[in-house]
Design brief:
mainly alpha; 9 helices; DNA-binding (chains A, B, C, D); 0% strand; Tet_transcr_reg_TetR-rel_C_sf (chains A, B, C, D); 196 residues; transcription regulation (chains A, B, C, D); 2 domains; DNA-binding; Arc Repressor Mutant, subunit A; HTH-type_TetR-like_transc_reg (chains A, B, C, D); transcription (chains A, B, C, D); homotetramer
DNA sequence: GTCTAATCGAGACGGTACGTCGAGTCTTGAG
DNA sequence: CTCAAGACTCGACGTACCGTCTCGATTAGAC
């Protein structure tokens, strides 16, 4: 005997996520207010508060829908080095897209608010980390024939992705593209057991 | 004929910077309001607005006093590899200190506010970048006897520092310490012209 | 061919009226919300709106059941003066009872809302006025042997009841009891044609 | 050494009181919201909350300024009976004026809210009661040469004013004018020591 | 010693957004 | 068709800070 009464409106959910996304890109994080989202989505404020605790939760919801593909590891299409380089380009490009702006804003906000940081970590970053480790492991395996252990894999991921996030978050733009290919090669070299 | 009347009070300046620092560490960035700083410093709001444009400027002021030494490159004390590893440890530790928290908050806020980002870049990050490049160049020179060109040096700095900032800003804590020594050696290897 | 489906549930009607009554006495008029009544009566809001237009209508419904006896003119039991005095005591006491509180609240609300005022007038006050005039006329007739004309009777009712309502509505409590007996005698005196 | 800084703006105070008055008369009590008053007065909501706790306090403030003259007892101008009758006319007319509407609304609200009732009593009704007793005593003294005792005077005031308030608050309009002169004469008769 | 001009505290003010409450309407599925 | 449950829009609530402003009181050169 399931419960009675009206159900949550999916169209409202989508309208809110889109409104939040749009506002963030157009006006920035500070100007993305709950009232603004409500107005733009044509929805009552109370309806937003019924389903989300804060604008950060809304953006996190929006991110989950959009970022999965933007940061996904593609199927093999060339040599491991080529595929890895291509992925780094994809990550660098991602931060220019709307979904990337959302992630950037949420990362920024996470520095300012411990709860938001925890929510972002749980809701997105750790999952993405797992996907990154899996994607990187697959490429390394294609390259060397074996999978590095967890710790080593994590270090490689940090060396590989760290510079991109660093340039984006600290200097406001992805790194020069000519950094990416050497970084990919370097990582694959480090992944060969003898170099460990 | 110079002007008359009282001059800017240094004690007020210090009280405001300390109040801002303390509030940030104790309550977080969002709770660090101009009104709160004014109250805690025992100062009128107007007095703050007379000398600073926003709380970001206050924190930037506070950062400039504290971060210089926290992120400074030390004098040679061992082999280049040892010195470089030691510096990476220093950077990682810096983000645990109050001054590091301020930088982290300002970096976070910079993701959310373009003006704040520009101010942080101009007021701190670019200068620190220059110091980092100089410090790294000096160590490489000791190691290889020659200085890499500007672009290459920048890439090396990104590879070296990126992972630390990445772990701090994305995962909320500095990387495992055992990542740092390999990263230092790696960077020095990459700096030798033949490996490029 | 009469209509199908269940009819209005009497148990719900009673539950709602009681819930409204209770809430009014316990929490006051403002805190007596439709939502509160619905919750307390274990009934859906919509069900209330199906049968009543507003909380005022609910309270009016509740009043009609209780106030009739509370403000009723009793059968002759003594001299006209005694009976009139007794009635005044009954009216004064009525405002201390729950039903009196409801009337007081509805009178209060009527000052603030023209529609509510009209509803109260139509639904209760004019009927009560008629009962009061009839009761008073009966007593006067017993006393003087004749019935005063409509206008005169109305004035007498105003002089008689006015002070009680005045004390209750303006000063929050019924008048001192020793006002009531002189008022009763006075009214009867004024009712004798020669004193008019 | 009095305090420094800007003082409360008198023009704002007046603008708020007028806006509240106007809204009450034009739209009624329920539609007289703090936000509406603020908008109409061209004032920030916070400014209202700084000086008044609720709209009731605002209206009370407004009342104090306007009701004093509207309900004042005039100087002797004729016989005591004439003056008393004139005063009753003044009271009955008062409830048709804006200030009278305010009093009526506040009386209505007082039935619904104990705190509001207490505030109204303290802030206005008890003072007005004192003025009424004094005014009535003066007229009686002119008529009979002596002043009745406190209790008796109170009863006379209740008999005199009760019917007017009763008709206004219960039936929504002042009593027929021909009630007033008999009521005045009656009261003076009752005030003569032998009739007591 | 004035004089004079800026600094400083205190805080009033117009705003914007917050997060909450209840109103009244509408939708769903059970009985 | 009625009902409980509750999603929905709407308007107002009272609060927090924002950034601007005004008001004396204080202070430190210039004369």
């Amino acid at each position: 005997m399931s419960r009675t009464g009206p159900r949550r409106s999916e169209s409202i959910r989508v309208a809110v996520l889109n409104a939040a996304d749009d506002l963030l890109v157009e006006q920035g994080f500070a100007a993305t207010t709950i009232e603004g989202i409500a107005t733009r989505a044509g929805v009552a404020k109370q309806t937003i508060y019924r389903w989300w605790k804060s604008k950060v939760e809304i953006l996190l919801d929006a991110l989950e829908e959009d970022a999965l593909e933007g940061l996904a590891w593609a199927e093999p299409a060339g040599t491991p080095a080529e595929d890895l380089t291509a992925h780094l380009h994809r990550v660098a490009d991602f931060f220019q897209e709307p979904a990337g702006r959302v992630l950037q804003a949420l990362l920024g906000n996470a520095q300012l608010d411990k709860d938001a940081a925890a929510a972002l970590r749980e809701g997105f970053l750790l999952k993405q980390r797992a996907r990154d480790l899996a994607g990187l492991a697959a490429i390394i395996e294609r390259h060397t024939g074996s999978t590095p252990d967890e710790d080593h894999l994590g270090h490689l991921a940090d060396l590989l992705l760290g510079p991109i996030y660093y340039r984006v978050l600290v200097f406001g733009a992805p790194p020069a593209k000519d950094l990416l290919e050497p970084a990919a090669h370097l990582t694959l070299n480090l992944a060969t057991p003898t170099d460990n």
